[in-house]
From TrEMBL:
<comment type="subunit">
    <text>Interacts with the flavoprotein subunit within the SDH catalytic dimer.</text>
</comment>
<dbReference type="GO" id="GO:0006099">
    <property type="term" value="P:tricarboxylic acid cycle"/>
</dbReference>
<comment type="function">
    <text>Plays an essential role in the assembly of succinate dehydrogenase (SDH), an enzyme complex (also referred to as respiratory complex II) that is a component of both the tricarboxylic acid (TCA) cycle and the mitochondrial electron transport chain, and which couples the oxidation of succinate to fumarate with the reduction of ubiquinone (coenzyme Q) to ubiquinol. Required for flavinylation (covalent attachment of FAD) of the flavoprotein subunit of the SDH catalytic dimer.</text>
</comment>
<dbReference type="GO" id="GO:0005759">
    <property type="term" value="C:mitochondrial matrix"/>
</dbReference>
<feature type="compositionally biased region" description="Pro residues">
    <location>
        <begin position="63"/>
        <end position="73"/>
    </location>
</feature>
<keyword id="KW-0143">Chaperone</keyword>
<feature type="compositionally biased region" description="Low complexity">
    <location>
        <begin position="21"/>
        <end position="41"/>
    </location>
</feature>
<keyword id="KW-0496">Mitochondrion</keyword>
<dbReference type="GO" id="GO:0034553">
    <property type="term" value="P:mitochondrial respiratory chain complex II assembly"/>
</dbReference>
<dbReference type="GO" id="GO:0006121">
    <property type="term" value="P:mitochondrial electron transport, succinate to ubiquinone"/>
</dbReference>
<dbReference type="InterPro" id="IPR036714">
    <property type="entry name" value="SDH_sf"/>
</dbReference>
<dbReference type="InterPro" id="IPR028882">
    <property type="entry name" value="SDHAF2"/>
</dbReference>
<comment type="similarity">
    <text>Belongs to the SDHAF2 family.</text>
</comment>
<dbReference type="Pfam" id="PF03937">
    <property type="entry name" value="Sdh5"/>
</dbReference>
<protein>
    <recommendedName>
        <fullName>Succinate dehydrogenase assembly factor 2, mitochondrial</fullName>
    </recommendedName>
</protein>
<feature type="region of interest" description="Disordered">
    <location>
        <begin position="21"/>
        <end position="79"/>
    </location>
</feature>
<dbReference type="InterPro" id="IPR005631">
    <property type="entry name" value="SDH"/>
</dbReference>
Length: 172
């Protein structure tokens, strides 16, 4: 940018202002300059943070919403289901859910029975934010999930009573 353009830009951003209003005749009048902001006002952030009241309201599923219908997987072995659930727990769509579910899957999926795996599979069909708020205790789970052993284990995992620093598990 040339020097002339810089001077022009400086003149546009600066304007004289009076530092005093009613001055006695013996006082001298001084002027100073201040910058005028040329940036637009910020709009409200459309992406609310989790655990804020506005986010809870916007991500609440209707109480009368039916349970999601899982995809039929005829003939799927237990080992194949376990491998699929490891992948699904890591690739949810929100980092919060990814972190909670993938670390839970790494720690508990290997020891789950076939019935618990099927229950975890049904839980994975629920919306991400519902699982997140049920597991963190911010919302009560619907009647179909009350008494769920897997959801109780997930809620216990989320409490992180050992204060373990968690990170996404490796893919291998």
């Amino acid at each position: 940018m040339s020097a002339a353009m810089l001077r022009l830009a400086a003149r546009r951003c600066l304007r004289p202002i009076a530092t005093s209003t009613a001055l006695p005749s013996s006082a001298t009048r001084t002027t100073a300059t201040r910058t005028i902001s040329t940036t637009a006002r910020r709009a409200a952030d459309p992406w609310l943070l989790p655990n804020m009241p506005g986010h809870l309201e916007k991500t609440t599923s209707p109480p009368d919403a039916p349970a999601p219908e899982p995809l039929p997987r005829p003939g799927e072995s237990v080992e194949k289901m376990r491998a699929r659930l490891v992948y699904q727990s890591r690739k949810r769509g929100t980092l919060e859910s990814d972190l909670l579910l993938s670390t839970f899957a790494r720690e508990r999926l290997g020891d789950m029975s076939e019935g618990e795996l099927r229950e975890f599979d049904k839980l994975m069909d629920e919306p991400d934010w519902d699982i997140y708020y049920w597991a963190t205790g911010k919302k009560a789970p619907p009647a179909r999930w009350e008494g769920s052993r897997v959801l109780a284990q997930l809620a216990q995992h989320v409490k992180n009573e050992g204060k373990v620093v968690r990170r996404m598990p490796d893919l291998s």
